[in-house]
């Protein structure tokens, strides 16, 4: 069975038609079946049986709410905007210990909620005039109270890629990685470039290699804080590496036998593979298979 990419597979109807209709949005909040996701800042709180913790929607809670969507049974699902004094620790590592307790669908629901809550916490003021903003469109935007400017959550595109040369692929590690851990190289797409150009630029900047034949493999939302990981492959024109040591501590070419050993968690493997949640692992599995 092919496992879904991490943070994909949420089956809620995002219900845009409810977000923009004040009466329908109010009716969704008043629905006695409505549920609200409980978070600790932006970290999940496990339920009694594991998984996410949901509470009945409390109309007496005056914090603004975000409509995550409506499930197949018609039950609205919400998450609340963080309070003005609530601390949002985007660097918290607690989430990494809790994510394995979630099903694929729960992780996808949580990932979307985390990205939205984090965005709202960081966009309380208008980028045009500096005045305070308020939630609108069911929590999927903010509007300035003074100049009326509308602001919407943004997703940052990131290319993550495997360069291949003579039946080997390139993996690398950053200084902050755990010992022995290697992954696919990645970088943000910059203004004015295509995905193919971003792949080629990042591989040259970080590893000093020139590539061609860039192809798309798959994509994955990554809520840390709100990226879209765009998985690609490329063909390297040569194996010589020149590393940007401010970004990459080490890199190496590995063959299929070595990749399969790493994916299997073999003690003799030359590196530790990315976890199942990450698209980097799927890229390696796809290539090794």
From TrEMBL:
GO BP annotation list: NAD+ catabolic process; NADP+ catabolic process
Listed name of the protein: NAD(+) diphosphatase
UniProt keywords, alphabetically: Hydrolase, Magnesium, Metal-binding, NAD
EC top class named in words: hydrolase
GO cellular component, one term: cytosol
Origin superkingdom: Bacteria
UniProt similarity note: Belongs to the Nudix hydrolase family. NudC subfamily.
């Amino acid at each position: 069975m092919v496992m879904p990419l991490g943070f994909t597979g949420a089956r809620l109807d995002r219900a845009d038609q409810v977000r923009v209709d004040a009466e329908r949005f109010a009716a969704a909040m008043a629905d006695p079946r409505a549920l609200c996701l409980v978070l600790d800042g932006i970290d999940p709180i496990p339920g009694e049986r594991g998984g996410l913790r949901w509470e009945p929607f409390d109309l007496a809670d005056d914090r603004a709410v975000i409509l995550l969507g409506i499930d197949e049974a018609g039950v609205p699902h919400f998450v609340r905007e963080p309070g003005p004094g609530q601390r949002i620790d985007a660097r918290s590592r607690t989430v990494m210990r809790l994510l394995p307790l979630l099903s694929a669908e729960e992780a996808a629901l949580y990932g979307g909620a985390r990205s939205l809550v984090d965005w709202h916490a960081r966009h309380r003021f208008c980028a045009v005039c500096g005045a305070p903003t308020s939630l609108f469109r069911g929590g999927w935007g903010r509007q300035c109270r003074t100049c009326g400017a509308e602001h919407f959550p943004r997703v940052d595109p990131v290319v993550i890629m495997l360069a291949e040369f003579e039946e080997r692929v390139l993996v690398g590690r950053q200084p902050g990685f755990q010992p022995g851990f290697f992954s696919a190289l990645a970088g943000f797409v910059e203004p004015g470039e295509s995905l193919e150009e971003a792949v080629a630029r990042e591989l040259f900047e970080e590893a000093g290699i020139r590539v061609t034949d860039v192809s798309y493999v798959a994509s994955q939302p990554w809520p840390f804080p709100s990226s879209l990981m765009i998985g690609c492959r490329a063909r390297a024109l040569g194996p010589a590496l020149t590393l940007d040591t401010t970004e990459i501590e080490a890199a190496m070419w590995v063959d299929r036998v070595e990749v399969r050993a790493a994916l299997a968690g073999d003690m003799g493997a030359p590196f530790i593979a990315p976890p199942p949640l990450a698209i980097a692992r799927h890229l390696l599995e796809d290539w090794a298979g």
